[in-house]
Write a structure and sequence with these properties.
4-stranded mixed β-sheet; globular; alpha+beta; 19% strand
């Protein structure tokens, strides 16, 4: 990852950790799931209001490290207003990005906001932190009410 993207990664992580977007509880959610990372104690609930096929609102609450909280915050800003199919596609894109080799080329234009999370690839122990909210969102969409854990 080039220095410019690495600096942006650090700034965005810090900003979304200190000022998380869509943090709280939805009064009227139609889909929800819980995620837990036993390695570092991150625990988040993701709640969504899905109307027809559109994610009208998405929020998360809980606690976690800077990377997990920032990833959850970024995820909600990307997913809100998208269709369920678009959200699932973003889930795949994100997963492919952070599980790729640290030196793999990334297409910042194609990835959009997700590109700033590419820095996680350089810290393998933190990939599960970044992944937690995304897997929890996926579980909420498919209405799997089992707590998703990152040790599986």
């Amino acid at each position: 990852m080039d220095n410019e993207l690495n600096e942006l990664y650090q700034q965005v992580i810090l900003d979304h950790n200190k000022n998380p977007r869509n943090f709280g509880t939805l009064d009227h959610c139609t889909h929800e799931a819980e995620g837990f990372n036993p390695l570092c104690g991150d625990k988040f609930d993701v709640q969504m209001e899905i109307d027809g096929n559109v994610i009208k609102k998405i929020m998360f609450n809980g606690s976690g490290c800077a990377i997990s909280k920032a990833s959850a915050s970024i995820m909600t800003t990307i997913i809100e207003g998208k269709t369920v199919e678009e959200a699932e596609k973003y889930f795949e894109i994100f997963h492919d990005l952070i599980t790729s080799a640290p030196d793999a080329e990334i297409d910042e234009d194609a990835l959009g906001k997700i590109a700033v999370l590419a820095g996680v690839r350089e810290y393998p122990s933190r990939i599960k932190c970044a992944n937690l909210a995304w897997h929890t969102m996926h579980n909420a969409i498919i209405e799997n009410h089992d707590t998703i854990t990152t040790d599986k």
